[in-house]
Amino acid sequence: MKKYLSLLLALLVALSCTSLAFAAEEDEEEISPEMKELGEYIMNHQAEAFDLAVEGYTCQSEKVEAELLTDGTVNVTEYWTYSCRNFEKMTKFERTLAKSEDYEISDIRVVMGSEELERFNSYEEIQAATESEGEKYPERKYTLDETDTGYEINAYLKNWNATTTIKVLYTVKGAVQFHNDIMEFNWELIGEDIPYEAGLLTGYVILPYGAQRDEVKAWTYDQEDYELVIESGELVGLTVNEVPANHAVDIRVTAPLYLFPDAADAYKTGQDAYMQILQEENDPDQDPAYTAREARKDQIIRIAAPVVLIGGAALILIVSRIRRKKKA
């Protein structure tokens, strides 16, 4: 019943706004007193309309950016975009960041737009603050609870019949490993705990500046409709369409050690690992013959490129002189 009432109110809002718009275009004085009264009533009763809206939303997209610093620290930013349609509303955002023996998470923050949300110790504190503001529903406030298995974020908002993006920011230490021969970053962009589908997931791993594109490698697992692209020596991009509920998306990236001159000793393994990683990923570079062929190709290209440029310049110069002689 509540759903039908909300849909009816949505229809009334649309009809009244449309009628007012058309009437204003013709002649502002021709708007009937009844129509004006209806429009003013709806505009002055937003709270009642929010009450009637049905709790529900669709996750349009998820985006995760992981920026690797030169000491191995990782700054992660998650973007969660939700859409409320057909007079739906969203009043709560939930996210759990899992703990691990392999890494530590710190400096957790929640942001909407350019505003960092206010953190409270409990929902009771949020209720008290909301009442002191004269509001019925809490907005732009959150709690962060640490448990044995993770960090539970509960953010409260008022998204009504619209689209909103919530950002979760945090710092990770220990997710990057420095082997004797390579840097390895193995990260779960989203885990199996996400209970709803997402239309699109985009993941980016941002590396320190300085590497060539072919010095960086990346892999992902168990994805159907996806694209993994090493866009440059500083950026790896992963796109996954139609992510199912409770479906994890992982990414593994390797890059040269010279990008990390400040590598923390705590993240160094003291072992060679690059060839083992290539074998685990069934990468063609695990074959020494393939690697040698690729190296010869690169060498030929490096030698040939200047020769082609010099030859082209010489040819242009010769043609130019011939034309000048003909004109003379």
TrEMBL record:
Signal peptide limits: 1-23
InterPro entries from the UniProt entry: DUF2207 (IPR018702)
Domain DUF2207, residue spans: 63-254
Pfam families registered for this protein in UniProt: DUF2207
Transmembrane segments: 300-319
Keywords: Membrane, Signal, Transmembrane, Transmembrane helix
Protein name in UniProt: DUF2207 domain-containing protein
Species this chain originates from: Anaeromassilibacillus senegalensis
